[in-house]
Specification:
heterodimer, A: mainly beta, 7-stranded mixed beta sheet, 11 strands, B: about 110 residues, mainly beta, globular
Chain lengths: ~110, ~110
C-alpha cells in the first residue's frame, strides 16, 4: 500500500487568489491523479500527472486554471488559480498500484 | 463512459446488517471497488473485487457482484456506529485503464 500526505488539509481563501496543494507519496509512482469532490457530489478526475511530462486534463478542466507540477516520482502539486466560490471543494490526490487506488486525506478548500 | 448509480442514504440500527447497492453500465470494468469516506477525511479503500468473481468476503464485509444485472453490493455485518460514513463504489474503466469512475456515494447512518 501507499501512504499519501496532502498539505494543507484545509484552507479558506479569498476569491481571485490561488492555492497550491502538495501531495507526497512514500514510494515512487509513475502516475498521480488529482480529483475534485464538490459538496455532496462524487469524485471527478481533474488530471493525470506523469513525471517528466505535461499533465493530461479531463474534459472541463484546463491547465491555466489547474496547473500541475510533477518534479519527481514521489511528489506533485495542484494549483487552483484565480479562485471563485465555485471552486470550494475537496481536492484529493491519488496513486494507483497494481490493483488498488490510494487516496490522500484531501484538502478542503473554501473560497469566500 | 461509465454511468454509476447509488442510493444516497441508508439508515440502519446498530447490530443490524447494512447493504449498500450500486449499478453500473460499463461491462468492461476489471476491478470494482468500495471506498469509505468519514467526515472530513479522504477516501479509505475498504475492499475490491475482480470482475471474474461473484463474491468476496473480508471479515464483516461481503461484496457481491452480479455481472448479468451489472449490480455490485457491499454488505456490512453487525454494523457499528463507527461504520457511519459515505460509501462510494468505483470502477476501473477497461482492463488497461488507470481511471476510476465513482458513484455519488451512499451516506450510511447507524442508529445506536
Amino acid at each position: 500500500s501507499a501512504v499519501i500526505s496532502q498539505k494543507p488539509s484545509r484552507d479558506i481563501c479569498q476569491r481571485g487568489t490561488s492555492l497550491t496543494i502538495q501531495c507526497q507519496v512514500d514510494s515512487q509512482v509513475t502516475m498521480m491523479f488529482w480529483y475534485r469532490q464538490q459538496p455532496g457530489q462524487s469524485l471527478t478526475l481533474i488530471a493525470t500527472a506523469n513525471q517528466g511530462s505535461e499533465a493530461t486534463y479531463e474534459s472541463g478542466f484546463v491547465i491555466d486554471k489547474f496547473p500541475i507540477s510533477r518534479p519527481n516520482l514521489t511528489f506533485s502539486t495542484l494549483t487552483v488559480s484565480n479562485m471563485s466560490p465555485e471552486d470550494s471543494s475537496i481536492y484529493l490526490c491519488s496513486v494507483k498500484g497494481q490493483r488498488k487506488a490510494f487516496f490522500g486525506q484531501g484538502t478542503r478548500l473554501t473560497v469566500v | 463512459g461509465e454511468d454509476v448509480e447509488q442510493s444516497l442514504f441508508l439508515s440502519v440500527r446498530e447490530g443490524d446488517s447494512s447493504v449498500i447497492n450500486c449499478t453500473y453500465t460499463d461491462s468492461s470494468s476489471t476491478y470494482l471497488y468500495w471506498y469509505k469516506q468519514e467526515p472530513g477525511a479522504g477516501l479509505q479503500l475498504l475492499t475490491y473485487i475482480f470482475s471474474n468473481m461473484d463474491m468476496k468476503q473480508d471479515q464483516r464485509l461481503t461484496v457481491l457482484l452480479n455481472k448479468k444485472d451489472k449490480h455490485l453490493s457491499l454488505r456490512i455485518a453487525d454494523t457499528q456506529t463507527g461504520d457511519s460514513a459515505i460509501y462510494f463504489c468505483a470502477f476501473q474503466e477497461g482492463a488497461g485503464s488507470y481511471q476510476l469512475t465513482f458513484g455519488k456515494g451512499t451516506k450510511l447512518s447507524v442508529i445506536p
